[in-house]
């Protein structure tokens, strides 16, 4: 199993409970495809470098998880079509 991190930028104009549900849905995709969520870090609302879908701000979340090498591609395919996710990035973390 490898260590990965999924970074999400979530719409800042939605209600708190909808935003939390969006993050829970992403965590659900991780567990559905055989991953194990180890940590979720909420970095808060930040100004974006440029407007995305006419929005100047977004909430940043960083989800660390352990998974097999083929799992991130499946997660990205599901997160890509999620409502309220402006941007995402899934990267493998270095073994330190």
Structure, described:
- With 96 residues, the chain is α+β, with helices and mostly antiparallel strands.
- Helix content is 27%, strand content 50%.
- It contains two helices and four strands, in the order E-H-E-E-H-E.
- It has helices at 16-32, 71-79, and strands spanning 2-11, 36-52, 55-67, 85-92.
- A four-stranded antiparallel sheet has the order 2-3-1-4, covered by helices on one side.
- Strand 2 (36-52) and strand 3 (55-67) form a beta hairpin.
- The radius of gyration is 13 Å and the shape is globular.
- It starts with a strand and ends with a strand.
- The mean pLDDT is 92.
The number of helical elements comes to 2
- Any idea what the radius of gyration is? 13 Å
Largest sheet, in brief, is:
4 strands, antiparallel
Counting helices, strands and paired strands, the structural category is alpha+beta
Residue windows where pLDDT falls under 50 for at least 5 positions: none
Q: How would you sum up the global shape? A: globular
* C-alpha end-to-end distance: 15 Å
Care to count the β-strands?
4
Report the mean per-residue pLDDT as an integer.
92
Strand order of the largest sheet: 2-3-1-4
Q: Roughly what fraction of the amino acids lie in strands?
A: over 45%
Order of helices and strands: EHEEHE
Question: What proportion of the residues is helical, as a percent range?
Answer: 25-40%
Question: What's the assembly state of these chains?
Answer: single chain
